[in-house]
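User: Design a sequence. Structure:
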């Protein structure tokens, strides 16, 4: 189904929908707009802009607290792969 056909069919469904359906579609639409996917993680899970910001802040806190691996530690770890 093409995008235009989907839009037309959704418009028809919304015209005849009850309040419960409209509230569900509205909530889903608002959530979708608030969680724009900007990429995907290595396991295929979506990454949102806010999720990326949260991950960067967490990584920054770990580095500031000294919770990181040095280049030498990483090279040793790679040898064990």
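Assistant: Done.
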């Amino acid at each position: 189904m093409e995008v235009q056909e989907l839009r037309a069919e959704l418009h028809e469904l919304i015209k005849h929908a009850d309040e419960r359906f409209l509230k569900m579609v509205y909530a889903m639409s608002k959530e979708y707009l608030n969680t724009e996917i900007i990429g995907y993680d290595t396991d295929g899970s979506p990454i949102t802009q806010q999720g990326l910001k949260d991950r960067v802040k967490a990584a920054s806190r770990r580095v500031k607290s000294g919770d990181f691996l040095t280049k030498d530690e990483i090279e040793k770890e790679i040898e064990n792969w």
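The longest strand covers residues 37-40. The chain has a mean pLDDT of 91.
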